[in-house]
Amino acid sequence: MRRISRITVAGAATASLALALSACGGTSTSASSESKDGDKGLAIAYDVGGKGDQSFNDAAYAGLEQAKKEFGYDTQDVEPTEGETDADKEQRLVSLAKQGYNPVIGVGYAYAAAVKGAAEKFPDTTFGIVDDSTVESKNVADLVFSEEQASYLAGVAAAKSTKTNTVGFVGGVDIPLIHKFQAGFEQGVKDTNPKVKVLSQYLTQTAEEGGFSSPDKGKSAAEGQIEKKADVVYAAAGLSGQGVIEAAAANKVWAVGVDSDQYKQEALAKYKDHILTSAMKDVAKAVYNLAQSVEDGKPETGIVRGDLKTGEVSLSNSNPKFADNTELQDAIKTAKEKIISGEIKVKSS
Fold it and tell me: What is the pLDDT of residues 305-323, one digit of tens each?
């Protein structure tokens, strides 16, 4: 059983915190309570691309850092390895649980099998998984988002901003998760201006082929769409999206970022004047909230969904040219209100 307050019950069980998806307390062994390091909290294992992707993984890390600062416990974040198997991922999560970390979060749908296996071995530890809703366990939180809703708003923005009536979508890997981004974006474009053409392309069929981790592939795809007159390109491709943004900047057209507010990313600063907005999902908040729930002794479990209504998906307003465009902002506001009310039902495939 977890302590309710780290101050009032200093030595009680392992401190815990969730990074992207996890919920529960303690561990199935005595590792955490016997740890010489004292209470341990949130641990996360990154998806492909790792820390520094300026997108999905970095958002999870931000949640971990917030939890670490607020709760004052030990945290750990672990990078993926090239060509790793589900067994490798499971061993990584098991190792973190054995060390006394709680919660333990797998950042990305690829951790589904690993989270399931590790959760069975450590029933008293809370596990989380981001972007997957298939793991059904009493000690697992499935942290998922309505990405199609933010993507719809990105489509509205693209349709209002294009001067060529052609926009582009670049998906990292041809999987159902990324189909949600494409479906919402295309619907938002068409509902706003049926005359606008959407060019859509996927970089790879599998993550192992580098669809989420190859900026060069993203750059090449964006250049191809720009040659076909696309002047707004939206990428849902993890680290590969950096290449899309680079290509957009080089050709003086708009890019739409994803997951994090990419206008604010230091590594992308030289391209920011060409980042119109970003379709964000607040992985940081989801991770922090899971950690908070464990810290409070009431860990989240089951499907935990973030959407426009909860504020965990949204469009960023960091670029002044976007934020100060009254017509554009009014259109986005109207669409958002209609989605939340149910008047607009956004497709997810």
Answer: 999 999 999 999 999 999 9
